[in-house]
Records
---
Amino acid sequence: MVRKINRTSIEWCDYSFNPVTGCKNGCIYCYALEIYKRFGWSFEPQFHEERLNEPTKLQIPAKIFMGSVTDHYAPWIPIEWTKQCLTVAEANPRHLFFTLTKFPENLAKFQFPHNVWVGISIDRQSRVNGLKYLKQITAVRFVSFEPLLENVEVDLYGIDWIIIGGCTGRYRFTPPKKWVNSLIKKARRWGIAVFLKDNLGYPEVIQEWPEGPPCYHDEHDQPCSDYCPSTYQSCTTRDPDTCEIAQEIEREQLDPNEQSEPGERTLLAGC
Ligand code: SF4
């Protein structure tokens, strides 16, 4: 069976791209680890070379989370694996890729194509020090405060986007609003876009994107559509499953004989 790239219900992206799976970091709240255990799959780091062409086969310009079930920059992941994934991203400029790590000290070992946004995960105060490495990277830079497990004091200057979320699943935790408000206030000071995950149960919907992301369609002389990563926010449904434009393009452009493996729709973010 030919494998197709997985849709995801992570709110800030459309698909997950996982040629690398598994992680040794052992975060207690790791959804990826939980799901892998449930299905009896190994969570040892592995490279699935056959998945590398998934973004190339996806004709719809999309927002793709690269590495939702691993940490590409962890010391146990061979640099070559991550470089191969970044090469795929560079070869597919119609897509916007997101990559996220808890090992920001290793980011400097990589060159990031312009269509890759680079983020670090900060769940606790002790990870704030990693921002100094992120700020050295030339890319759209973001911080994922998910799950936000502590009130975090942080200087967000130089960051383009923050995501804030709680913890769902077995270790369900909703951070107090005063922690969330404190981060929003810090972001507002520097004009940083804020994206609040639904799992916060926040009274307002705040789901912003950094201003002026490049339009990747332009490089191919194609007109923008509602499904362009740069205009996606204006899509009325924001859901690839129900967006008629997306479904129409997909029907026309994807081989109808290709199918995803059953039960592999990714509902989680590991890192
Ligand atoms: S949350 Fe990220 S760093 Fe932690 S175990 Fe899962 S994949 Fe690894």
---
Amino acid sequence: MNAPTVIPGCSKPDEAVAARPVLRERGQREVFCGLTGIVWLHRKMQDAFFLVVGSRTCAHLLQSAAGVMIFAEPRFATAIMEERDLAGMVDCQDELDRVVTRLLDRRPDIKTLFLVGSCPSEVIKLDLAKAAERLGKQHMPNVRILNYSGSGIETTFTQGEDACLAALVPEMPAQASDAAKQLLIVGALPDIVEDQFLRLFDQLGIDNVGVLPARNARDLPPVGPNTRYLLAQPFLADTALALEDRGATRIDALFPFGAEGTTGWLHAAATEFGIDEMHFNRVVAPGRERAKRAIEHARGALEGKRISFLPDSQLEVPLARFLATELGMEPVEVGTPYLHRAHCAQELDLIPPSARISEGQHVDRQLDRVRADKPDLTVCGLGLANPLESEGFTTKWAIELVFSPIHGFDQAGDLAELFARPLRRRDVLEV
Ligand code: SF4
């Protein structure tokens, strides 16, 4: 096992957090690649199309991650690179131009086209930025063409969303210098959840609110020094950097999971926008109480239970905080592929000091620790769940947490249930 090491560079001046040891690991990984993000991004951005430039493996991954979906007009596809492309026997840029032109001729409804890089396109160093620029000039103003990488080389699957949103930021219009202060919610949320948050901000009196990504990728909100952005997801490091390059400032907050996380997230925005405390409490109290009642249903199954997270979705830190502070679970290990200490500072502060925080992946060592720790529930990727179940461990698929609506007050009960269900199932099987 690696000796625990302290990562320098925590931006929070809280000594407990700054000094919190983090076990850093590098080794074999078992995660999906960034292409997976297309499954939820294409549902969110309804005028966008995702063209993966990849292999048959990439096409299979997308199909299986998306399930069996029958669309009259699908909004993602794979331009499959054949052996002769990979062997450099044809000009891939020419081939790509032909595929894109054919696609756009057939589909005038596409307003934003993402060329999505993959492992094969990166291995042969196919320059998709150059392709997007060249094709963009041909097809503007009807279609905006952007590119990002969804490859599985040194990434985990939620980084696909980060790369996609970071590609959108330079396209956002500049905010007028005398524009009113604007709140920007960042992170792809299901429409129903986004609407709940927009209603709450409206009731709070924050009316200049933008979202990234917008439902129509062409309706990008403006950005500039009067933008205060609030991350809805903990895995948007590159997007945050790109927004800051455009002058925006991050509002430090908990992530909106559970009654308290959602209250903290809304409160951080309300404070930034000078909302009266009494008014805040009046607006937020009904949702907060609803969420508290809803999560109580899962308390019996979860309270006092020990939980380990293997690194997968990058949601691990805020979810461990939610389960520890709101449901009385005991996090044993909280593993995350990448830990953004500044974005997760408030979350780390609330995770009990007994929990081991780890960053990076080394599957064998992590599995050894699960066997030694014997948690009641292990949250992990699909590839590790079956082997662990066969050894008698109860598991939860991390990817389900990304595909389910889990943010906000009205989803808090469902979020708790996602963790309670496998434990109840185990109890039933053991009877
Ligand atoms: S991008 Fe890489 S990891 Fe993802 S499906 Fe394609 S080949 Fe596999």
